[in-house]
UniProtKB/TrEMBL annotation:
Pfam assignment, any one: Glutaredoxin
Organism in which the protein naturally occurs: Bifidobacterium commune
Gene3D superfamilies xrefs: Glutaredoxin
Glutaredoxin domain: residues covered: 8-60
NCBIfam families found in the cross-reference section: GlrX_actino
InterPro entries in the cross-refs: GlrX_actino (IPR011915), Glutaredoxin (IPR002109), Thioredoxin-like_sf (IPR036249)
Protein name, entry field: Glutaredoxin-like protein
Amino acid sequence: MANTNIDVYGADWCGDCKRAKAALDRFGLGYNWHDIEHEDGAEAKAIEISGQKHIPVVLFSDGSFQVEPSATDLKTKLESLGQL
């Protein structure tokens, strides 16, 4: 998997988080998983990034982020960054 400097903040029980991770896996992209329930400071960081408590929060290499993105949203963003 390519190293893309993508950070994903979420929880194992979250369906949207599972879908976002599955999309990134399908695209063949690596990412850093931050479990907000088990990683100290991860929940606070996700809220700091997005300004809200919705997950997943996907932080991209250009500093932008998406909250609860669809696979299409992720693909469009990653293509714009030249990562797909």
